[in-house]
Write a structure and sequence with these properties.
With about 300 residues, this protein is an alpha/beta fold. The protein has a single domain (about 5-230), classed as Alpha-Beta Barrel (TIM Barrel), CATH 3.20.20.70. It is about 50% helix and about 10% strand. It has an eight-stranded parallel barrel, surrounded by four helices. The longest helix has 19 residues, at about 235-255. It is globular, with a radius of gyration of 18 Å.
């Protein structure tokens, strides 16, 4: 297990990704397929893998299943650090943080609290309680009903030494730039928009040097090539990959609600890993959409 400072360094060292969670035909966690896929992904250059995260259907897993996923990830990912999804209400999040720490997670990604939108003081209390419940590193995720303002995040950083990362999925570049300017190198900054490659260059300009790539799940070489082009300020390569792969991909992704997850899972399945279906309330791609995705993978392999 990494210390919080070591995890912070790892987060900033390269591309990140969120492995999918495969299920059996009986809708149980498929440990064997998961570990095969994780072992394959760990052979590429992701600096951290986020197990049981958003792309891993955290929202549909029981707390016990999350712990099971983390154990499987730690057994199969080699030396790649593993960050666990964490969330729901404050007490549940604190209990889950302790459980995944015991299972070997190197850190947690604190996903938006369940259902309600809290005040800044309420969000502060929530994040602080979770940070104080564990010794491992914590990354907060600004998205949807959980948006920390810059001064709230600064207060949390002062009170919580193990708060080491900030991930943004809000798309509010003005707020992101204020946070990166105010907190400087106190935190690692991670881009977290759905199919973040579409936004990566704008976020890079706002001080966010890395991001989580969902498509790394099934086209890791292409995802790494795009990330390297961002780092090298190679705009022509970025434009070409966006045109050839990402814009056609989002045309598939945007055909139905929830396809930001389902399309990734289908991509992994098409690469030969028996992932099973997504859990309700998500739905799987149709046969025609799977054929479209297979053609896109073949064209960009």
């Amino acid at each position: 297990m990494l210390t919080p400072d070591q995890l912070k360094q790892a987060l900033s060292a390269g591309i990140l990704s969120f492995p999918i969670t495969p299920f059996t035909d009986e809708d149980a966690f498929n440990t064997d397929v998961y570990q095969q896929h994780m072992a394959w992904l760990s052979g590429f250059d992701a600096s951290v893998l986020f197990a049981a995260g958003g792309t891993g259907e955290f929202f549909s897993l029981t707390p016990d299943e999350v712990v099971e996923v983390i154990r499987a990830a730690k057994e199969s990912a080699g030396t790649t650090p593993i960050v666990s999804g964490c969330g729901y209400g404050t007490r549940m999040a604190c209990d889950l943080a302790r459980s995944v720490e015991a299972a070997g997670a190197d850190g947690i990604l604190l996903l938006p609290n369940y259902l309600i939108t809290g005040s800044q003081q309420g969000l502060f209390n929530h994040v602080r309680a979770v940070c104080h419940s564990t010794a491992i590193g914590v990354i907060v995720y600004n998205r949807d009903n959980s948006i920390l303002q810059a001064d709230t995040l600064a207060r949390l950083a002062d009170e919580c030494p193990n708060l080491i990362g900030f991930k943004d999925g809000s798309g509010d570049i003005q707020l992101v730039r204020q946070i990166t300017s105010m907190l400087g190198d106190r935190l690692a900054y991670v881009g977290g928009m759905p199919t973040h490659e579409l936004f990566a260059q704008a976020y890079y300009g706002a001080g966010v040097s890395t991001y989580s790539s969902a498509v790394f799940n099934f086209v890791p070489t292409l995802a790494q090539k795009f990330f390297n082009a961002i780092q090298a300020n190679d705009n022509e390569t970025c434009k070409q990959i966006l045109k050839d792969f990402f814009y056609p991909f989002i045309a598939i992704r945007d055909r139905e609600k929830g396809y930001a997850v389902a399309a990734i899972k289908a991509g992994v399945d098409l690469c030969g890993y028996k992932t099973g279906s997504v859990r309700a309330p998500l739905s799987d791609l149709t046969g025609t959409e799977r054929e479209m995705l297979q053609d896109l993978i073949n064209q960009n392999a």
